[in-house]
């Protein structure tokens, strides 16, 4: 494979995610792009906090085919969609944090609007707390093909940056490399925690 270094970085990111408690009970999935046609995705059903490089399967970005015959993540179709939609995306992290899971249910609209927080600047291109950052929320579904089509349609109409929430399920985010995906994950999770606390205290 051509992306050994990024796969090594991704394995480290998975261990970090596990230590944070953001991938409980086999939840979550992670990937890196190899090139325009292939990515490496975590195998389905594994504890994501203790993955090794051997737990990642090569998957076709065009049609989700895994030549190994092993089963990549149940949410493979969302990772490959992101690689097709955004040529600059090279790493995707999906986590089940409590804040992402709960906040995406408490907020019943199609977007979580975040404003007023300095940590918005942890997100690529954000330069001020005065802006409003919309994070799309999609209703959860077990039909990943249908969900991917819905997200693709949304992305044709509205900007889809950094990541999105799946309602009652978790956060999927991405970056130009593993380091940026990690920064977006940590930044968004911090912002979700702040937003949760703000909503609780300002009631
Ligand atoms: C704990 S089951 C959760 C899964 O259905 C799914 O949402 C998930 O994130 C992990 O699925 P996986 O197939 O292991 O990548
Ligand atoms: Zn999930």
UniProtKB/TrEMBL annotation:
Keyword Zinc set for record: yes
Superkingdom as given in the UniProt entry: Bacteria
Binding-site positions, Zn(2+): 94, 96
Protein name (Swiss-Prot/TrEMBL): Methylthioribulose-1-phosphate dehydratase
Keyword Transcription regulation among record annotations: no
SMART domains in the record: Aldolase_II
Native source species: Phytobacter palmae
Cofactor note: Binds 1 zinc ion per subunit.
Family of the protein in this entry: Belongs to the aldolase class II family. MtnB subfamily.
Keywords carried by this UniProt record: Amino-acid biosynthesis, Lyase, Metal-binding, Methionine biosynthesis, Zinc
Pfam families found in the cross-reference section: Aldolase_II (PF00596)
Enzyme class of the recorded protein, top EC level: lyase
Residue ranges occupied by any Class II aldolase/adducin N-terminal domain in the UniProt entry: 8-196
Reaction(s) catalysed (UniProt annotation): 5-(methylsulfanyl)-D-ribulose 1-phosphate = 5-methylsulfanyl-2,3-dioxopentyl phosphate + H2O
Gene Ontology molecular function: methylthioribulose 1-phosphate dehydratase activity
Function: Catalyzes the dehydration of methylthioribulose-1-phosphate (MTRu-1-P) into 2,3-diketo-5-methylthiopentyl-1-phosphate (DK-MTP-1-P).
């Amino acid at each position: 494979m051509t992306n050994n270094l990024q796969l090594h970085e991704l394995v480290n990111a998975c261990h970090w995610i596990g230590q944070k408690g953001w991938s409980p009970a086999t939840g979550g999935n992670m990937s890196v792009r190899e090139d325009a046609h292939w990515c490496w995705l975590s195998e389905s059903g594994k504890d994501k906090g203790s993955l090794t490089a051997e737990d990642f399967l090569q998957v076709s970005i065009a049609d989700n085919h895994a030549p190994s015959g092993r089963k990549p993540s149940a949410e493979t179709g969302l990772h490959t969609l992101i690689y097709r939609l955004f040529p600059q995306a090279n790493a995707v992290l999906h986590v089940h944090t409590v804040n992402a899971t709960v906040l995406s249910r408490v907020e019943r609209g199609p977007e979580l609007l975040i404003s007023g927080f300095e940590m918005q600047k942890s997100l690529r291109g954000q330069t001020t707390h005065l802006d409003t950052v919309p994070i799309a929320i999609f209703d959860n579904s077990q039909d990943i093909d249908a969900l991917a089509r819905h997200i693709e349609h949304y992305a044709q109409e509205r900007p889809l940056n950094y990541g999105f929430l799946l309602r009652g399920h978790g956060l999927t985010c991405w970056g130009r490399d593993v380091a940026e995906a990690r920064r977006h994950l940590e930044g968004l999770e911090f912002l979700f925690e702040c937003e949760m606390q703000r909503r609780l205290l300002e009631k």
